[in-house]
Queue: 2 jobs
Job 1
Amino acid sequence: MVNQLMTNLHYLVAMILFIIGFHTMLTHSNLIKKVIGMNIMETGIFLLFISIGYVRGGSAPIINDSIASYVNPLPSALILTGIVVGVSLTAFSLSMILKIYHYYGTVDSDEIMKIKDAEE
Amino acid sequence: MRDVVLQTIAKLIIPFIQLYGLYIIVHGHITPGGGFAGGSILASSFILYALAYDVGDGFRRMPRLAAKWLESMGGLMFVAIGLFALVQGGNYLTNFLGIGNPGTILSGGSIPLLTIAVGIKVASTIITLFYHLLEEKRHG
Amino acid sequence: MTHLPVLIIVFYLVLAFLTPLLGRIKRLNTGWLAIGGTLAGLIMAAVLAWHVAQNGPYSYFPGQWQAPIGIEVRVDALTVLMTLLNNGVGLMVMLFALRGVKNEIGEGLTVWYNTIFFLLMAALNGLAMSFDLFNVFVFTEIGTITACALVAIKPKRMCIRAALHYLILSTVGSGMILLAISLIYMVTGHLNMGFISGEIAGAFALYPLNIYVAMGLFIVGFGIKAALFPLHIWLPDAHSSAPAPSSALLSGLVVKIYIVVLGRLLFQMFGVGIFENIPVPDVLIFLAILGMLFGSISAMNQLEFKRMLAYSSVAQIGYIFLGLSLTTHEAMAGGLFHMVSHALTKSMLFLAAGAIYYKTGIKKTDELNGIGYQLPLVTAAVTVGAISMIGIPGTSGFVSKWMLAFGAFDAQRPLLVGVLLISSLLNATYYFPLISRAWFGHPRSSLRWDEPPRLMLLPIIVLMIGNLWFGIFPQTLRILVVQVASMWLP
C-alpha cells in the first residue's frame, strides 16, 4: 500500500493541490483569494498532466544521437498552452476585480452581497 | 519607485533578459519553451524598465499604438504562414521549407517562423495587459 | 473546397486581428465589417453543406500529418448543422448590434465588441468541427473568455459582477475538463477521438476507475458551461444583465455548442455501449427533468423581462438534455431539433427585449401593458416566440416537442410525456399573461413611441419567419438531425 503510494506520489500531490485550490475558492470571501485559489487548482491539474509523461530512465526531450529513451514531450507542449490560458484568465479576472473595487469600494464578496441587497 | 539600487541593477540586467528571451524564442523547436515562454520573458524586460524608472518614460519607449500594431501583426503573420502553405498546394499549415539537420537552428521547416510570430504576439499582449492594469490605477 | 472548414476559422481570426487596426479610421464603422464577415462565413458554411451533401463526410488534417500524430478536423452532418446555425444567428445578431449596442455600451467600445464577436465566432465554429480532445479544450477556453468579455463590456456594476461569477464558475469547469482529458490520455495514450473510441473498451476492462471519473468530470465540466440543472447558477445574472445582442448570442449559441460537444464526447468517443455499465443517461434524465421544472417555476417569479427569459432558457436546455439522454433515434433528433428551434426563438426574444428597451426604456414585465398598439411588429415577434416556447402547432417548438414525445414512447418511458406536458403548462403560465397584457392591457404611462429602426427590426422579423418556416416545413431540418442521430446511435 505504501509502496503503491510512493510510486504514484506525483498524482497524490497534484490532487492535494487541486483540493487546496478548490477549497480556497469556495470558502474564502476575499475575491483576490478566490483568484489565487483558481491558480493553485490549475497548477495541480498541470502537475497531473505533466507527470503522466514521465518515463523512468528517460532524459530530457532534446534530440541527441547517443541517448536511447526520452521523456514524452507531448504533455509539456500541451501544458504550455494550458499555462497561457491560465494566465489570460487570471489577468481578465483581476481587471474585473479592479473594476468591482472601483464600483463597490471593497473586495470582500460578503460585503458586496450586503451592498447589493441594500440597494435593491 | 526611484531607488538607486533598483535602477542600477535594472540598467545592467535588462539587455541580458532580452537576450535570454530571444534565445528561447529562436530555439523554440529544439529546446523546451518556444513562443509563449520567450515572449513572456521579453515582455518582462519592458515591465522591469517601467517599474524601476518612471512609468511615463516606459510608456514613451513602447507606446500603446506600437503594442497594438505588433499584436495584430504577430497574429496575422501566423495566419499568413499557414495560408501560404495552402497556396503551395498542401493543407493549412503544411511545411513548405526544407527539414534541415535535426538539432540545428535551421531545421524544423516553418516552425521557427511560427514561433517568432507567437513570441512577438505574446510579448506585446503582456505589455498591453500591463498598460491596462496601470491605467486603471491612474484613472482611479 | 476541401480547405473550407479551416478557412472559416482562419477567416474569423484574421478579421479579429484586423478590426482593432481598422477601428482607428474614424469614418469606418466596424459594424459593417462584422456584418460582411459573418455573411461571408454563412456563405462558406452553405458551400460546405453542399459539398458534404454531395460527397459525404470527410476528415481534414492541418499540416498534412495523419491522425494520431496530427490534429484531425472532422466535417460531417453535425458540423454542417452547427456552422450553419452559428453563422446564421450570428449574422442576425450583428445586424441588430449595428445600431442596437451603442446605447448600452457607449461609442468607443463598439470596435472591441466586434473584435470579441469575431473571436467568439472562431471559437464556436472551431468547436463544431474539432475531433481532437486538446483542440476542444483550447477552443472551449477561447469561447469562455470571449463570452465573459461580451458580458463584462457593459460598464455597469451588475454586469461586471455577473461576468466575474460566470468566469470563476467556467474556470472550474475548464479545470475539470482538462483533468478528464489527462485521465483519458493516461489510459488510452491518444488524444484523437476516433482512436480513443477504438481503445476505450480495452481501457475500461483494465482501468474502470479512470473512465468513471473522466466521464463524471466531463459531464460536470461541460454541464457548468451548458447550464445543466444544478450548475446553471451563473446563467440568470449573466444573460439578463448583458447587452441585448450579447444575451442573444450567449443564450442562443454559446450554451448550445457545449451540449453538442458533450454529445460528441459521450456518443462518438465513449460509445453507447459503455452506458450499460455506467448509468449516465438515467442521471442526465433526472437532472434534465429537474431543470425543466425548476427553470419554469423560477421564471414565474421574475419581475424583469430578460431575467424571465434567462430562467426560461434553463428550462429549455433541460428539454435538449432530455432528448439527448433518452438514447433513441427519435428522441435525439427531437433534442437537436429543439436546440435549433430554441436558438432561433430565444435570440429573437432577447433581441426584441433589447429593441423594446432601446425605444422605451422598459425593463420590467408589468410595465409592458398595451405595448402592442405602439410597437406592433416587435410584439408580434414576441408573441410568435412565446407560442413557440409553449409548443402550440405551427411553430418549430411544437415540432420538436412532438418528436421528443415520440422519442419518450420509443424509450418505453411514457411518464416522461406527462412531464413534458406539465412543463409546457408551466411555460404557459408566465408567457400567456405577458402576451395578453402586451396586446390587451392599458398603458401605464401616456408616452407614445413608434417602431424601432428598420435595421433592428429586420433580424427580429427574419428569425420569426425562420421559426415559423421550420414549424410548417420541418422536413429539411428533420433530415439533417436524423442523420446526426443515426451517426451517434449506430
Note: The CA atoms of residues 38 and 91 of chain C lie 5 Å apart.
Job 2
Amino acid sequence: MAALKITLFRYDPACDSEPRYQDYVIDPDGPLSVLQAIRYVYHNSDGSLSFRNSDCRRGVCGICSMMIDGRRQLTCMCLATDGIKIEPPPNRKIVKDLVFETD
Amino acid sequence: MIDRTIETDVLVIGGGGGGLRAAVAAHDEGARVLILSKGIVGKSGLTQTAVTGFQVAFGYADPRDNAAVHYADTIRGGYGLADPELARIFTAEAVEAVDDIESFGARFDREANGKLVQRKLDSSQTYPRSIKKGDSLGTPIMQALRRQINKRDIPRLHEILVTRLLKDGDRVCGAIAVDFQKGALLEIRAGAVVMATGGAGELFPVHSNTPDSTGDGYALALDAGADLVDVEFLLMLGHAVLHPATVRGVLFTFQYLLNKGARPLYNADGEPFLARYDPEGSDNPARHIYARAIHGEVRAGRGSPHGGAFFDPGSVSIKTLMASLPSQTKYLQSFGVDMTKPIEVGAAAHYVCGGIKIGARAESTIQGLFAVGECSGGPHGAGRIGGNSLTEILVFGKRAGIAASEFAGSHGAGPSDAAIIAAESDRILDYLSDRRTGPRPNVIKAMLQKLMNDHVGVVRNDEGLREAVARFERMEAVDLCTMSVAESNRIGNYDWIEALEVTAMVRFARAMAGAALKRTESRGAHYREDYPELDNEAWLKNIIIRKDSDELAFEPRACAPDPTLETAE
C-alpha cells in the first residue's frame, strides 16, 4: 500500500490566532478508515493532535462525523484516500483541532 | 486545584444503557441526579451497538418458556458460578424491563399477531427467547432512554473522565474527574454513586468494543476498596472479521444464521475444524468455543494469513445476510469485504463476565457504591449467554437507580477530604509534567495489549500468566511513573486522557491476569491449557479480588448455593 497524504484542521484557540491546515504523510500496512487514519497520525506522527476517539464501527453513534473534503460524513464509515482534507463542521466552536463543542 | 465543585444526590458514571436506566430510576425516586460520561452521554457505550438479541422469556414463540427456564439457561451458561439470586432477579424481572422500556418509547419487531418476535440465537437458549429490532437492537433502547433523560431534564456532563472515587470513612461520597473539553478538574459530592462504565475490550489488540472501553470502573472500584468477582472470565468471540484492517474486530454474527448442516469455518488446509474442539462435536458450537478452536488451528500452523480461519460463504446465503444483518453486512461491504467470498475471521475480546461484585440492589461491597452492566459482576458467572446483557442492564439499572436514590436520601453528600483531593489533583496534573520523559500512553497501551493477547487471551497457562502479572507490576512501578504526554496544555488534551486511562487499564489487567493465574482449571470463558478440565471439586468458587494497601488479594470463595437445586433435592 502506497503512502498517503492527509490534511488535518489544526487550531488551538488558547494560543493560535487562527486555524491552519497541516499535512501528514502516513504509510500504514493496509487500508484505513478516515478515523483510523486520524488515530494513526495521533499515534505515530503527532501526539498533540486532539480528536474524539469514538469509534462504534457501526455508524450508529455519529460522534465521529467530520467534514471530509467539504462533505459531512462519518469518519468510521469512510476509507482514507490520498489527498483528503478533514475538518470540523463549519460554524462550530472549536475546543481544539478536530474537537468541537457538542450541542 | 479543583476548578469546579458540583453537588448531587446520585452520581451516575457512564452514559450507556445501564447508566441511563439507573439515572431515570433515581430521578423518578426523587433524587437529584448527575450523569457523567467519558464520551457523549447517551451516545457512548456498547448498548447502542447491540445487534442480535435481548433475552426475555415471554413464551410467545414457545409456550414452554418462562422465567424459570431462562434462569436455568443462565446458570448453565455461567458454568455454575453465576450468583443464583442475581440470575433469578434479572430473569424474573425481564418482562417488566421490556414493559418499562416500551413505555419509554422503544419498539421491537412484532409478528403479524402483534406479539414480539422471539428467536433462538444458539444452543444456550432452551427455547426461542431473544427479541430484536432488525439487526440494531441497541438503537431503540438508547433512543428511548435518551428521550426520558431529556424529558426529565436530568443534568449531564459530556467527556468527563472520573479518576478517583472519594470516601467519607467507609462510604463512597463522590468523585474527582477531568473535563476533557475544558481541561478542568472537577469534584463531585454525591450521596451515592452508580458505576456504569462498561467493559474493557481495549485491553486487547482486537476487540468488538469501542476504544474507550478501558475498564475504568473496575480500577476505580478496586482503588476504593470494593470487591471484584469473576473477572478472569473474559469472553472472546471467534467471529470477528480480521481483514482488511479497516474492519478488524468488527463482529460478523453469522453463527445465528447458518444453513442446516453448515460447517462455517475452515482452516488453511481447507478443512472444517470446529467440531473437533467442541465437547458436543458441533460445527456451530457455543460462542466461546469458536475462538479457542481458531486459536488451536493457528497454533498448529493451519491459520489464515492474518491469524484466523476462513468463513465459508456457502454456509449463509447473501440473501439471508442482507435480510437479517443489513447494517453489519453493508458496513463490511463498504470497506470492500465481498460477502460471497471466504472471509478471514478470528478472536476478538467481547465481554468481561465478572466485575464489581453486586448484591440484589446492585450494591457493591462498599457503602454508597452501586454498579450496573458490564462493569458489575455476579449475574453471569463464568460465561454470559448471548442476549442476557441487555436484560441485565435494564433490570439492574432500575434497581441501582432506586437503591442509590434511597441511600443518598438517608446519607446526603459527604464531606470532602482536602488532603485526598489535593493528592489526586497532583497525581492527575503530574502526567503533564515535563519531568516525565518516558513513552507516550499509546506505546504503553500497545505493550499492555500484546501481553494480554499473548498471555491472558483465548488460551492461558501458568508461565504466561506469571509473566503477564510480573510485567504489569513493573509497568505500575516504572513505565506509568515515567509515561509522558505530547503536550502540557489541559484543554482538549487527548493524550492526557489516554494517560489516565492507561493507568486504569494496567491496574485492571493485573487483576484479570492474577485471577486467571489463581484459577487452576478451565471453565466457561476461562481456558487454561495446563488445567484443561472443569474441576468442580476444587473450583465451584468465585475469585474475589480486593485491594489491600497496595497489593491485590485474590480469595476463592465457595459459590452461593442455587436454591432451585436445593428444592430439587
Note: The mean pLDDT of chain B is 95.
